[in-house]
Amino acid sequence: MNSTLANAPAAQLSGRHLLGIEGLAVPEIQSLISRSSYFADVITGKVKDDSIADILRGISIVNLFFENSTRTRVSFEVAAKHLGASVLNLSVSGSSVKKGETLIDTAVTLNAMHPDILVVRHRHAGTPLLLSKHVDASVINAGDGRHEHPTQALLDALTIQRKCGQIAGLKIAICGDVANSRVARSNLYLLGALGADVHFVSPSTLLPAGIDQFGVPVHTDLEAGIEGADIVMMLRLQTERMQGREIPSQHEYFNLFGLNTDKLMRAAPNALVMHPGPMNRGVEIDSVIADDAEKSLIYTQVEMGVAARMACLEGLAHKKSEAA
Amino acid sequence: MSPKLLFTNAHLICPEQGIDGKGWLVTEGGNITAIGTDDKVASEAKDAELIDCRGDILAPGLVDMRVKSGDPGAEHLETLSSLKDAAAHGGITSFAILPSTEPVIDTAAMIDSLHLRASRIDGPSLHCYGAITKELEDDQMAELGMMAGAGARAFASGTLSVQNAQTMRRIMTYASMLDLPVIHHCEDKSLTEDGDMNEGETSTRLGMLGQPAAAETIILQRDIELAKLTGVHYHAAHISTAGAVAAIRKAKAEGVRITADTAPPYFMLNELAVSGYDAACKLNPPLRTEADRQALLEGLQDGTIDAIASDHVPVNPDMKMQPFTQASTGASGIEVLLCMTLRLVRTGTLSLSRAFELISRNPAQILKIDAGSLKVGMPADLVRINPNMSWIIEGRAFKSLSRITPFEGQPAEGKVTGLWIAGAPVALDQ
């Protein structure tokens, strides 16, 4: 595995919040990935560095999840704990929202407890931005509706960079429900900014409006779209979309757009497969591929997620202490 | 009793009489009794109280044909009294309220009650539309004939868009018997149910589902066919798309009895205003593309669009300080209708005369309100405007209780310096 063993410095961010990849400059992205890679070396035991456990000592982080996501929440929590921060997890979906408290009430209440970083997941686009205007904490977008999921794109880029050595020049096909995917958007911005040749593959009913304006080649045929691809990134298809609305059936979707060994033959000989999880086995991806340790990066992605989030938390905490 | 008034040094605007220039005007007993553009002020004006307009515009007061009232049902958002005060400060002398109140204005008794309550408050005249359907549900026709008898100016739907063609056909047929217009909001709900903004590149970039422009034109095209079938006077409300402008232009050329209005946000802003998820810009219909905006401007110029209405919707911060998807649609509009229209005059898009056709004469004619003209014998509903006075639009300074506007912080030129209803002055803050 290629990796950056040098101790890269803390990521340099220009903004106080991390709300999306769109708007980040390439050097900011690169500094996040370099630092993430160092953290990846530490947490995988390649490098020993006990000092990281003090980096965020005294920093308090609140995971504010308005939408359930065990995977992302745990990843942020582990990242924060590796760096010595204190973490509070708040699942708001069931509690105050039902009592009539508005989002802003929740934010202002939390603000009075003076957290340093607020990690926000919400089912509606733009919510982290809205919250950022009402709190003193730095806000990290942990996924907002169909908009962005910046830490997912960073962990994906980190995974690719460490596996392939570089991102520039790689053909990366992002396949599936592009219309409803924040992962697809964030990855398009990030991987595109780093020089990858990004392609979208999707049934026409799951392509977002105006996608032709984004400068990304779009395919409605999986095999044509992944032709010669170095990376095939499959997106999760929500089951409720497969029942005759956007897609005739799960059966048809797997036949036309599901990734199996045969279809993967069309990609580059050593093509690697990614998925942001959780997977629908037998819908968008065949288990044979998902579990193929040679081809699948799916579990590496989870591991890299912690490292990428460590770099983001540290970068924002530094930014905040500079400003103070 | 209204005083006898002589307005001099006025820049008179009356599209009906083709007047756009310096002149004088006399009012007595609530009506306009003399008007002239020469220096020879009528002799009967001798004992009148003199008002020197110092070159200000003196025009027929604005007629706002699309206003949502918070009263009854949501008086925390707007009362009849705040609405009248806001209208007066916006240069409006007559306005028509949508039936979308709580309860819905779907009976003659509701109209009687509103007329009575409004008559107890000084200021601009309030007119009512009758709901096209009971409780504004997409189903049974309301008592259109009784409401016509109570003085409904037209039959309207708020933001209900009747999805069933047969229901709409029957409403139109019945309304044509009563010789009143049907004012409709065009929206194919099956195409808009999950959409928060205009559909396109911007909605995709912002991660929101969109409402395609076709949602407006599909219903509008259907309604045009039904208007041909029924002969009703059909009025398309707050049109927002280039497709709607084209469809109406074509229908007018074919002789269909159709009129249309749009509102300032649609010709001043485009969907990019939503880019920061600013819920003040969440409207129904949504802000569209720049191409749509340009088409609306053309429609305003060439007569395809007949009227500009405020599309005033009372909303408060609780309804707007929300994730964009969850925020309510609508914004306060009644106090910016005039200045936004005057901006089109300043940019050379419209002549002053055309502007007053759009905000006064045409809506008065569509609704058969005795207003919109400076002809001798007309009620003296007048607005005086200093077109050069500049100000900054600030919601918190609105008279309306609803203070959220997509134009917050924007500069405006043209301020109301006087308002008269039936020849009696209305008190205004300066």
Described by its quaternary structure, the protein is heterodimer
Report the portion of residues of chain B in β strands.
15-25%
Low-confidence residue ranges of chain A: none
Shape of chain A: globular
Q: Biggest interface in this structure?
A: A-B, 24 and 22 residues
Annotation, overall tally of beta strands of chain B: 19
Spatial extent as radius of gyration of chain A: 19 Å
- Overall pLDDT score of chain B: 97
Shape of chain B: globular
Beginning-to-end CA distance, first to last residue of chain A: 40 Å
Number of discrete helical segments of chain B:
13
Structural class of chain B: alpha/beta
Mean pLDDT of chain A: 93
Q: Write down how many β-strands of chain A occur, each being a DSSP E stretch of 2 or more residues.
A: 9
Strand content of chain A: 5-15%
Largest sheet of chain B: 8 strands, mixed
How far apart lie the N and C ends of chain B? 25 Å
The biggest beta sheet of chain A is recorded as: 5 strands, parallel
Secondary-structure element string of chain A: HEHEHEHEHEHEEHEHHEHH
How would you describe what is shown here?
The complex is a heterodimer of chains A (324) and B (430). Chain A has 324 residues and is an alpha/beta fold. Chain A is 37% helix and 14% strand. In chain A, strand 5, helix 6 and strand 6 form a beta-alpha-beta unit. Chain A has a five-stranded parallel sheet with strand order 7-6-5-8-9. Chain A has a four-stranded parallel sheet with strand order 2-1-3-4. Chain B has 430 residues and is of the alpha/beta class. In chain B, strands 1, 2, 3, 4, 5, 17, 18 and 19 form an eight-stranded mixed sheet that branches. In chain B, strands 9-10-11-14-15-16 form a six-stranded parallel sheet. In chain B, strands 6-7-8 form a three-stranded parallel sheet. In chain B, strand 14, helix 8 and strand 15 form a beta-alpha-beta unit. In chain B, helix 4 packs across helix 7, helix 7 packs parallel to helix 8 and helix 8 packs parallel to helix 10. The longest helix of chain B has 17 residues. Classes of the chains: A alpha/beta (324), B alpha/beta (430). At the A-B interface, helix 4 of A face helix 6 of B.
